[in-house]
From TrEMBL, chains A, B, C, D, E, F:
<dbReference type="InterPro" id="IPR015942">
    <property type="entry name" value="Asp/Glu/hydantoin_racemase"/>
</dbReference>
<dbReference type="Pfam" id="PF01177">
    <property type="entry name" value="Asp_Glu_race"/>
</dbReference>
<dbReference type="GO" id="GO:0047661">
    <property type="term" value="F:amino-acid racemase activity"/>
</dbReference>
<dbReference type="InterPro" id="IPR053714">
    <property type="entry name" value="Iso_Racemase_Enz_sf"/>
</dbReference>
<protein>
    <submittedName>
        <fullName>Asp/Glu racemase</fullName>
    </submittedName>
</protein>
<comment type="similarity">
    <text>Belongs to the HyuE racemase family.</text>
</comment>
<dbReference type="InterPro" id="IPR052186">
    <property type="entry name" value="Hydantoin_racemase-like"/>
</dbReference>
Amino acid sequence: MTAKIAAAAGEVAGPGVEIAAVCPDDGPAAIESHVDEARAAVAVVELVERDVRAGGSDAYVVACFGDPGLDAARELVDVPVIGIAEAAMHLAAISGRSFAIVTTLSRTLGRAQDLLARYGMTDACVWMSGTGIPVLDLEEATGEAFETIARHCREAVAQGADAVVLGCAGMTDLCHRLADRVGVPVVDGVSAAVGLAAAMVRAGVGTSKRDEYAAPPRRPVPVP
Amino acid sequence: MTAKIAAAAGEVAGPGVEIAAVCPDDGPAAIESHVDEARAAVAVVELVERDVRAGGSDAYVVACFGDPGLDAARELVDVPVIGIAEAAMHLAAISGRSFAIVTTLSRTLGRAQDLLARYGMTDACVWMSGTGIPVLDLEEATGEAFETIARHCREAVAQGADAVVLGCAGMTDLCHRLADRVGVPVVDGVSAAVGLAAAMVRAGVGTSKRDEYAAPPRRPVPVP
Amino acid sequence: MTAKIAAAAGEVAGPGVEIAAVCPDDGPAAIESHVDEARAAVAVVELVERDVRAGGSDAYVVACFGDPGLDAARELVDVPVIGIAEAAMHLAAISGRSFAIVTTLSRTLGRAQDLLARYGMTDACVWMSGTGIPVLDLEEATGEAFETIARHCREAVAQGADAVVLGCAGMTDLCHRLADRVGVPVVDGVSAAVGLAAAMVRAGVGTSKRDEYAAPPRRPVPVP
Amino acid sequence: MTAKIAAAAGEVAGPGVEIAAVCPDDGPAAIESHVDEARAAVAVVELVERDVRAGGSDAYVVACFGDPGLDAARELVDVPVIGIAEAAMHLAAISGRSFAIVTTLSRTLGRAQDLLARYGMTDACVWMSGTGIPVLDLEEATGEAFETIARHCREAVAQGADAVVLGCAGMTDLCHRLADRVGVPVVDGVSAAVGLAAAMVRAGVGTSKRDEYAAPPRRPVPVP
Amino acid sequence: MTAKIAAAAGEVAGPGVEIAAVCPDDGPAAIESHVDEARAAVAVVELVERDVRAGGSDAYVVACFGDPGLDAARELVDVPVIGIAEAAMHLAAISGRSFAIVTTLSRTLGRAQDLLARYGMTDACVWMSGTGIPVLDLEEATGEAFETIARHCREAVAQGADAVVLGCAGMTDLCHRLADRVGVPVVDGVSAAVGLAAAMVRAGVGTSKRDEYAAPPRRPVPVP
Amino acid sequence: MTAKIAAAAGEVAGPGVEIAAVCPDDGPAAIESHVDEARAAVAVVELVERDVRAGGSDAYVVACFGDPGLDAARELVDVPVIGIAEAAMHLAAISGRSFAIVTTLSRTLGRAQDLLARYGMTDACVWMSGTGIPVLDLEEATGEAFETIARHCREAVAQGADAVVLGCAGMTDLCHRLADRVGVPVVDGVSAAVGLAAAMVRAGVGTSKRDEYAAPPRRPVPVP
């Protein structure tokens, strides 16, 4: 999946943008529960900390649709940090009045609701649907999985969505074929986030360090 | 702090309720950033998993005002799991029309806002304030820290709050003195959560296992 | 119905809690319109005033799902006053992300909507349904009434509700059987309110007397 | 006060509109608490029932800013029933983008908040203020009371209100003088409601009898 | 259509109210897109400017359901300026708890959503539907068009609407027949706006000139 | 001002992006009222129509903070159309939790509120302020104007804003100096929109043509 994400990111990166796609060594194999989410958040923190020690990057993208560890990562740097759910929702909201989310397991829709609220997108999202396809089954999106996802996308349009947001980084390679199939914009978070990162870097807009996202307080190590 | 929390919980537990206050071995010393929050969430997951393996409890309380790991813990059990921010907000909302939150560092107010939205309490909360007192300085709430917190509580009332929610488990022992000082209900999340846990257990209301909070999917361990 | 409510309350009361279930002498026989609601509110005020004159109680529960007279009763005392709709909604919101309300006549759902808004529960409530069963027909919940209510509860789960709130005190004795049937938490307001009352009394959280809920102004009796 | 209200209503009634201003015999002398509100609601129900028995009217106005008994009264008739808070808020919302409420005792602002939410006016209302003047002191609005109210109205404009809603039927005779003083529309609910009633009657728009506001169910009188 | 609107307005105007129905010379033939809306807004501005130069009127009604140019027109006068969508929504909200909008082309529902939000009516509107009938086809509402609209109105009631708002000035002559057919209030914006205008004029409530709606700044004509 | 906007856009465009900055021949000299807004919307429509006839562009940016004509322009093309208010708000919302808007005349803040609501940014915007500087005075931002704007930006931070959105295209050249001065991200809509346009083009996300934004219906030209 990391290779697939790297490919999608590279495709939209544009001249002068370099992508480093990294995967935590010991994160969960897939993120489809709050328990996975909690572990992934710590993994994201550690990857960003490691990258900062290695000199840092111009922007960071968290490439899981639950945007795990996004707030924490923002505390560690002053450059843009963008989640793919966040990015996809913002771009979809510009492509029309309303969007739908088509994702993997319906159990992740609760997290999606929290993110919609956090990003101001609750009203823009008019429909959400889980396809029942586990994340790891997307590794090779066979015809059947594609058809299932396409069916959900078509239903999204029937429900009044102007655009469809794909709710998993593992769907990134299906994006253009799905758009062709359903006839409305289909937004992949990886591409959206890479584009937004470039936009923010070029505009000189990083992460605010005012209060909430300032570097975390250092504390004396407690004596055991 | 764990002892203080245990004392507060014990005080309100009522007959027939037994409290086990536990602290993760390797969690952050205090939770006052999103990075701390991420680490604490994993620690909460591990503590609940360990307790379940040891036979489990009738209910769980997450005793940090950021309610870290609450959603994840809910996936692991079918009994009530209650965060102290959640509990304090619900009880405060019953004690009047509006409440304020008085907490430690203002940088944690962003997380509090997310929780208010999640629990439906955004409109009920009319004021939020950070006292600037770090969590660990609450270990021994000297006169000065108490006076600072009391001043913020009084300001909360002046700002139209019917009740005050204390935004840190470390303030639990100040609760009654603050209520006496400001003349409105002051709600400590630890006491609130213990009471709510007992209420839910007695009423036979646990955690719904319908979809989002069902046990997380088990996945084959990926071959490295 | 008063006896049924007393039984449900007693069952969850726990050690050290004493329940006095009272019914106004001249209130409406059932509360299923705004006109009934208006009359019940005055009856609640009168019952609380009488109880206060008789020495008062540690907490008050208003055992009708429209929470009639709740605000007024709060003006009369400084201890907790809890409505059963309020209590059920708060507990349901802790047992999952979302709940549904299954009630008697659909004409009462407007009042339920007002209460959802007042308590911050509009977003948490994903479905509402009237069974068409009048309150008084619940006195003896025959098999048929139970099956109708159970069918609505199952539909609630199908509509995405993590939990079901029973919208009438007269359903209190069906709660556990319904939970067994539908497999998600089913919340009865009477049990919820009794538990919340105990929680608030133990935590020392009463009704704020700051402004809105202070004792009503006494006025010279107008000369006719 | 009834005479004052009748005068204000008559002034705006226009040709062909007849006003009957009535006051319950045994309602509270003034309505400035939830307890008063509860009693006033029953009084409104009784007055409407009596009027219906006497042949009925073309429309009803509830002339207290808490709109007591409004929902109940709507159950009794199929013609328009309008509260003066409701009317004033709707008209103020048309006269500009935002309004403020200036009322008698601040303790009534909670009720005003509930009404704002019920009528969709929460966002439009940018400021609310209690003058501290009891309702009965408005009977003869001496210079001092007028100046106090005018000062609050001016502050409302400074706080960004395009218009001011007067939060008590007892202020009806001050409306035009206040508008002259502060230079923005000042809306009196009595005049607003009379105008709205005429508008609805002429447009043939009454109270919907679909479900919530259908006539209340008749029940067999319970045998004592 | 202008004649039809004039007739509807005249019918509800009441004694002492004179209606002047005017149509821009070069506005769009119908308003069923944002492009039409933009052109209509400028036409409204020009008509109001012309009327002001001719002595002005006591109130203005913008008789297109998109309320085009409403904010701009308000800058030009200090008397009431009322849009028919605005008026219909406010009156419908008083006739029951909820309403539906039945309009011409579904593509105009986006604009309706913006207006609902602007007027605080988002929650009150429980259903919206486009009939697919173009505006100009309403000129002569044959039996077929009427039946289509009536079918949508009945569906609106089934969806829980207490009242129906007609989403086009061209439907004004169908209003009473539709109300008879569906049994709930059906609100035509033209009648509603004329009534509201009379109400505001009689109550002395005009357009606030505080800041946003003050006369637009005059600027030196730029030298080309 | 057109030259200034072209410069800002060119600066952030990145390799392979070509900017054509155009100004309507007969639009208003500045846009600081709803009347100006209405006229500018028509001018935007005409410019886009003309560009489409000339072969079209890959994306369109509407470079006025009121985003005039944005919805209408979207009907005319299937590529991205982005308003600078929209772009600035989205980017600011990613740079922190909250932002403020600092603009020219306070009378334009009403329009800004409508846009915040339309884009889901009402909660993210914690403060708005008009500097009182007319648009045309920004042509040459002398020291004094800059200091005034900087003072408002500092106040924005004091009011809790993580970032500042500049509310006028005429402030685009002040953006970096202001960011240096206040120490939080300052977002210029022109730069933001150009970056977002590139992001959307690269990700293959255009304007949805589903219903609302489909090409407007063609109608027979009415016979005069």
